[in-house]
Amino acid sequence: MNREQPFTRRAFLYHGACLAALGAQSKPLLANLQIGAAAQITTLSDGNLSLPPEMVFGAMPQRELEELMTRYGADLIRYEPECNLALYRDGENTVLFDAGAGPDFMATSGKLVDSLDAIELSPDEITHVVFTHAHPDHIWGVLDDFDDPLFPNASHHFGRKEWDFWWNPATVDSIGADRAAFAVGAKRRMQVIEDKVEFFDDGQEILPGIAARASYGHTPGHMAFEIRNGSDVVMVVGDALGNPHVAFERPDWHSGTDQDPDTAAIARKSLLDQVSHEQMKIVGFHLPDGGFGQVEKTGSAYRFIGEPL
Fold this sequence. Notes:
Blueprint: H1 14-19, E1 29-35, E2 39-48, H2 53-57, H3 62-71, E3 82-89, E4 94-97, H4 112-118, E5 128-130, H5 136-139, E6 155-159, H6 160-167, H7 171-174, H8 180-193, E7 197-200, E8 205-207, E9 210-214, E10 223-229, E11 232-238, H9 246-249, H10 261-277, E12 281-284, E13 292-298, E14 301-306
Parallel strand pairs: 4-5, 5-6, 6-7, 11-12
Antiparallel strand pairs: 1-2, 2-3, 3-4, 8-9, 9-10, 10-11, 12-13, 13-14
């Protein structure tokens, strides 16, 4: 039995939800940010997700949630977050953070190759793929339509804790029925790229100027990445900060997309403290308008200030 299929008919209803959004169009190239004298971060669209809002927000205090979302001009009818992959180029390394969803997850996602085409960059030119975590919209795109590695010349960098979780044969049975397809899909792709993988741990400098920063909870080994070039610094936050409103104003609230909600809430608060105190720019996989922005602390809460570029 192919256990990549159950997610299409269980509580997530991903494909059913995305069918209503087939008309959604993604912008191939969203934003550029100069970092240091000669390096650049570009965010590339992989499209968007289309999820049942209750999947994300269902465990939160509903009255307070509605008030908060109203203030941000958001609603709880649709939840269609962008998928923004960060591409770092310094003249020597061409580093892609995550690989997108590929062709087998949602009809609204898997647009990365089109985005690479838009900047005239071939997958063959990617020198490194660095993963925040192994959820489908972050790793399933590592294989092409023929199940071959999409980035044949790249080394693939995985946090050891994250790899061990998805590689463990017990994960598919322990993760829950609604996420079993995630485990099967991750393991299948990891098996194909296994001989291309290099492991890293929290705090380790993976490449010159790129250091891993633990942000566990969304998945057991989720990582953010601190990129420094000259006096400039940017934090790639992955899914540790998964939306521009609730995650910042109420980081203590549990999100249904987090595998360990308590740990994820602690990671959010820690990350927000760091980037606001150090006045770092951030780039988020599911943050709007290309994902770039800054974080401002307002009392006991935080505010995302987007920077469309």
